[in-house]
Description:
This protein is mainly α. The chain has 42 helices and two strands. Strands 1-2 form a two-stranded antiparallel sheet. β1 (2-3) and β2 (9-10) form a beta hairpin. α10 runs antiparallel to α11 (204-212), α18 (314-330) packs antiparallel against α19 and α31 (524-531) runs antiparallel to α32 (536-553). The longest helix has 20 residues, at 697-716. The radius of gyration is 28 Å and the shape is globular. It starts with a strand and ends in a 6-residue tail after the last helix. Mean pLDDT is 77; it is low at 1-100 and 709-722.
Amino acid sequence: MVNGGGGRTANMKTKFTVNLTVLLLGLVAGGLAGWYLAGRGGEEAGHGESGPEYQTSAFAQKSRRDKPNALLRSEAAAGQSEPRTANTEHEPDADSIDSYIMWTPRENVAKALRSAMRTPIGRRCKPLDDLAMSISPADAAYAIGVAEKFARKDYRNYFIRKLLPKLAKRDPHGALAYVDSVANANERTWLTRQIVEAWADVDSAAAAEWVQDLPAGQLRNQCLAAAVSGLAVDDPRAAVELAQTIPAGWNRDSALETAASKWAAVNPKAALSWAEDLTDGQTKRKAMASVIAKWAEADPSAAAAYVTALKTGPQRSEMLASVARSWFNADPDTAIEWVWGLQDDPSITRAMQSIISSLAYSDPKRAVEMLDKVPAGSARNSTISRIASSWAQSDPKAAIAWVRSLPDTIPKLKAMQQMTWSLSYIDTDLAMEFISSLPEGRMRNDGMRQLASRMAGWDIGEALKLLKQLPDGQAKQSTLSSISYQWAQYDPEGAAAYAAGLPEGSTRQNLLNRIADSWSKRNAPDTLAWAAKLSDAERQSVIPRIVGAWAGASPVKAAEYVAGLEGGEMQEKAALSVVQQWSYVDPVGAATWAQDFPEGELREKAMRSVVSSWTRYDLESVAGWIEKLSEGRSRDVAVETFASSLVQFDTDAAIEWAQTISADDVRNRSLSSIASSWMRYDADAAKAWIDKSGLPDEMKERLRKQGTATDFRTRSFSRMIR
């Protein structure tokens, strides 16, 4: 039982069900069953002869009814192309990267797809990826129709997902029509962005126009960022203007970086002038970095002269490294001469590291000889690890010998850890030999874990063989932990059977959690039925995870299930899990549900979760929603969370919002957090504000000490890489 508003006492079960009926009207998901690895079917259909007789898919027929006549004529013309032989290249669009790809002839698609579908499960994604890459945009709709004949929904849908961006280049509305049928809201958003990005590559103006007609929210913001990428090629200034219409947040920053980079490729001086005029500190830093990186590719000496003249600081250090990387790619000797000519510059360490790391691929011995030029400490230690990683890719045995020759110190330890990671990508047999030669302990266990994780990525069966060969102990537990995600993803029933034989403890619980995460994305009701057979303690852990995954596709159904749980700790955890996932796909719906929780810790946590997710892509909508909240503890918590996200974009506005918090403890905590963040990039201004603020004296003193420590670290470690 929890205390409701107005002095009433109500069970959470009742409180959670309020408003769900209304919310259902706005959140009914359409369509087809299952999406990315979302269900286990029987054996693949379509084992007979196949070819051009495959019928047009249902989604394509629907898109024909909905599309303008011009699009229909375009698609009909594409479908009338002459059959191509296996060794004939499809004629590409002008200036397209597709001109370098050998296409699979239409008449061979069904046979190739059947072959890929018969590959062992753990290795099936790679041939599907390769086949999707070889399908021409003109044949994408046909290939999707072929794929829909296969019964195995998870891999069928995985393949179709790979084709949608190609379809979007010929028939964007048809691709969008297919996405409308995807049940998982997160997947719909992600796929729509991919389609818009592909569409913008061939018709940026039409893609941008379509996106701007979307309602405000996460989908529109992400699609605007995608449209900017294509528009920036045709009209970089227009792309910058479009990016600036995105609400402040990650999407806008990403779009501005992309637009700035594309603009710098054609007119670096104009792009640089625009970036220099930006007023927002973080946005300006990112845009400047993008412009300099692209400028350095075309004219490294000019970019180097500009960056060298900048004021010493973290941004200058980052830009010097960026110029060094680009220059080294074009002219290694000149780049090395330039960097070493600045070796007394306190900002050049990152550039030195960049040069040495790049050199380690082509001339590792020379890279080792240059190590002495890197200041001793964390920067040199990091560079040693980078050399080990790069060298291992060209001559792994020589790299191993060099690492073993290093003194027995922390740099050697870290280099050996890096070596095990690199070898697991390059040569599993050599990796196993190297890891087995290590002394028993954490490094060896970590190496086994890394190797097993890599193996599981392409063949879960081989990874399981490695697991079974290991003796019981920490190494086996670490290995199981590393492959549990892939195992649960490909074979949740098998993983569940294995988990049932494990003794109770953290190893068993971790595997159960992985199973819950993966299985619930395919079939949440079946996963809940499995969870019902577990112990009480295990259910406390897995059920919130299951309903959280469920909420990504069907938040209302997940919320209804949570409302039916018995009140207590598990119900509260499950409710927070639903709110967290729901807020990614529909923050307004999640916020409405959370507002109906009774005042208390659960409601405060739910408000934090909603605002934290929402502010990542739409600060303006969050501000409008908060303004409508009534005074109270939950509003204070929402404002505190909002202000902590706002500070990186507008410190003054963050302070102004924090000062509207009614509770003294929450308000002071929020203002202190803002000042702490401010101190990291403008200590003088932050200190001046702290002195004039109404914060308690002990809080002011703590912030001043933090500022002193920050100043000391900046002076002492300016030559080191964080």
